Amino acid sequence: MATRIDSVVLRQIRLPLVHFFETSFGRTIERQIILVEVRADGVSGWGEVTAGEHPFYNEEWTDAAWLVVRNYCAPRLLGHNVPHSAIRGHHMAQGGIEAAVWDLHARQNGRPLYEEIGGGARKEIPCGVSIGIQDTVPDLLKKIETELAAGYQRIKIKIKPGWDVDVVRQVRETFPSIKLMADANSAYTLADTDHLRRLDDFYLMMIEQPLAHDDIIDHAQLQAKLHTPICLDECIRTAHHAEQAIRMRACGIINIKLGRMGGFAEAKRLHDVAQAASVPVWCGGMLESGIGRAHNIALSTLPNFVLPGDVSASKRYWARDIISPAVEITPRGTIEVPTGIGFGYELDHDFMDAVTLRKEEIR
Ligand code: OSB
Ligand code: MG
After folding, report:
1. CA of 80 to the centre of ligand 1 (A)
2. Are 352 and 137 in contact (CB under 8 A)?
């Protein structure tokens, strides 16, 4: 990273979701998102911090991430004389600034971000949707029907104790041949093994992160008892974690999230580790605004992203996105990878300013 960075601009935006999103750890109705702009020689690169509003998916959250980027990541990037020690954890905070630097470099090199990161294996990426826990099963079935009609290639539903086997059974009965999977966001323990085994009846593509957010060993024990492949999300934060999980047979599939990995460099290493072990990966989502979404699209052009991801159209989340055009789905259930330089979409600066709650420049 030879570029001299002139300044880092942080902003926190507020974007209400068009529909609440509920997981085993709670319901989100609006997002508070930190956007990171890195400036060098009149060029700006953009990144998004994917931390949630509360420390429930993992330990990171918007307000804490703001301080980590402002007090630790930005001063280091600016070359200020700060103690030489690595920042432990806070991958989403670090990943927001890291991704912005990749976008900056892509723009300085006059090429698309997917090319900058060494992607470009596909011109369109296969898309699935993640559907949250609904108030009723009929609500869920209706949502699934809408997404299938839009063309999405696979459906992921969120599960938790009390909203799992019976719900999956009803979805399966209604849609016998769709690609279906379930994400528990760490809602179970090994004591639920017999209960989780009942999900084997519904030929799910995978079950995502059933056990603790920081566990690999119990997942290996559970995987030995399940036919359904386990996909790990929360507990894979480094490529080394993936090596260990694969070696222990804790999973058959890995969800890669840019923020959780701390940015493109480690996400790419994870991609390569999984590819070398013939473990397929797909790109997860964190209810991103257009900037994070565009980064996810670029990431999904690496060769081993062979399964449909959770990256979907802007309008599923936002009445209006901060990028233009909004991310759209083709009738084939894909997103066409933009070929413009950098992350490939225009920023809607007026709208971004209108939804900005706070902004700070660090120089
Ligand atoms: O576990 O994949 C997850 C959203 C927030 C936190 C965690 C997760 C999710 C999703 C939504 O599943 C993915 C998306 O549509 O962006
Ligand atoms: Mg998940």
Report:
1. 35
2. no
Whole-angstrom Cα distance, residue 53 to residue 93? 13
For tokens 């934060």, what's the residue?
Answer: 237
**Model pLDDT for residues 201-246, shown as the tens digit of each residue:** 999 999 999 999 999 999 999 999 999 999 999 999 999 999 999 9
Q: What pLDDT digit, counting tens, does each position of 322-346 carry?
A: 999 999 999 999 999 999 999 999 9
pLDDT tops 80 at residue 84? no
* Coil/strand/helix, residue 144: helix
Query: Cis ω on the peptide bond leading into residue 331 (within 30° of 0)?
Result: no
| Ligand lying closest to the C-alpha of residue 17 | 1
CA distance 196 to 226: 8
261 lines ligand 1 (CB under 6 A): no
Does 2 have pLDDT greater than 70?
Answer: no
Q: Which residue is closest in CA terms to ligand 1's atom 4?
A: 286
Q: Kindly report the pTM of this predicted structure.
A: 0.97
Ligand 1 atom closest to Cα of residue 183: 1
Distance 85 CA to ligand 2 centre (A): 31
153 Cα to the center of ligand 1, angstroms: 17
